[in-house]
Specification:
- By secondary structure, this protein is α+β, with helices and mostly antiparallel strands.
- It has 14 helices and 6 strands.
- Strands 3-4-5-6 form a 4-stranded antiparallel sheet. A two-stranded antiparallel sheet has the order 1-2.
Amino acid sequence: MQYYSASGLKKLREIELENLRGNGKGERKTSDKIYDYDTYNDLWDPDDSKDLARPILGGQDHPYPRRCRTGRPSSKKDPLSETRSSSVYVPRDEAFEEVKQMTFSTKTLKSVLHALLPQVEIMLLDPHLVFPYFTAIDLLFQGVPLPKSKNFFQSIIPRLVKTIAEGEGDILLFETPAMIDRDKFLVSEWPLKSKLDPGIYGPPESLITAKLIEREIKGVMTIDEALKQKKMFILDYHDLLLPYVNKVREIEGTTLYGSRTLFFLTMDGTLRPLAIELTRPPVGDKLQWKQVFTPGWDGTSCWLWRLAKAHVCAHDSGYHQLVHWLRTHCCTEPYIIAANRQLSAMHPIYRLLHPHFRYTMEINALAQESLINAGGIIESCFSPGKYAIELSSAAYDRL
C-alpha cells in the first residue's frame, strides 16, 4: 500500500506498474511481462477457412470476459480478428516452470492419444453406419466387469443412519445444510414456463403438468406439497439451448433440443427422474414441437425414455465443460490482469490472490490453441458443435 511504503520505493513502484500496463501497441514477445486486455478475436483465422468462421467474443453482441492482449497481426480478410500462431503469449511470470511444463505435457499427450484413437476409428469406419437393432447398444458393454457389491454392513448402515436422521425423533437428527435451501436446481415456480419470446420460440408453457407429476410419484403427495417440502428439482437447459437448436440441427450428423428434466427427492434421499421434456422451436412453416417422456414398462416407452435421457446427458456434459472453462478459467483471467495492473506485488491483497492465480493464464493460452478454438476439442466432442463457445457467451450474459 502506497502510504506505508518507504519513500524510496514509491517511484520504483510507479515505474514497475507503468511497465506492467504497457502502451497497448506492438506484438508481445516471450520475454515481455505486460498485462493488457483484449477480446477473444483469435479463435479462428479468417485467412484460413470460411467454414471455421466464429464471432468475436467480447462486446455488446457477444459479452465475454477479456483475455490477455498478444498484439499479433490482424487478419487480412477481417481486420478485427488476429492471426493465429503456434503459441499464445503469456507474461513470463505466468508461464509454466520446467517441472510443471513436463508434467502438464505428459498429461496432455495422454489426453490427446485418448481422444485421437476414437477419431481414427471413426475415419476408418462408415460414418453412416447405425445400430441394426436397439439391443445392439447393449452389446457395447459385453465383457465389461461390474464392480462387486458391498457387503451387508457396508451398504445398510449408512442408509440406516440416514433414515434415522430424517425421522421425526431427535436421535442423530442433523440440521439440513443451508446450501440445499438455496439450491438453484430447486423448483420454486409452478407451472414451468419459458422466459423466451413466444413470438420467436413458440408457446412458453411446459407440457409437464401437475397431473403428470402426481401420477409419477404414485400419489405420495400433491404437487403443492412437494413444492412446499422442497422435494422437486429441475435440470433446465430449455431457455439456454433453444435459441441454438435450429442452428445446430443444420450441422450434418447432429441434433439438439431444449430440455427440462424434473426430479423428485425420495424418502431415502435420492433424486428420481420423473419426466423429460424435449423442445424444438418453430422453423419455416413448421410449428414448435415438444414432447414429454416418462419412465415406462413396455418396449417402446422404455427406449424412448433411454433416448431422452441420452439427450439430457449430452446437454449436461457439454454444459459442464463450458461452465468449467467459463467460470474456473475464463472469468479468472481479467482478475489476474487487473491485479497486476493495479496492485503492487507488495500489496497484501495481491499476496493473498497470487497463489490462486498461478498458471491459470498459461492453461488458458493452451486452451485457446486446441480446446476452445474453431474446430477444437470442445466443438468436436459436444452437442452444440461449432456454436459451443458462442453458447458459453450466452450463458455468461445470463450470469
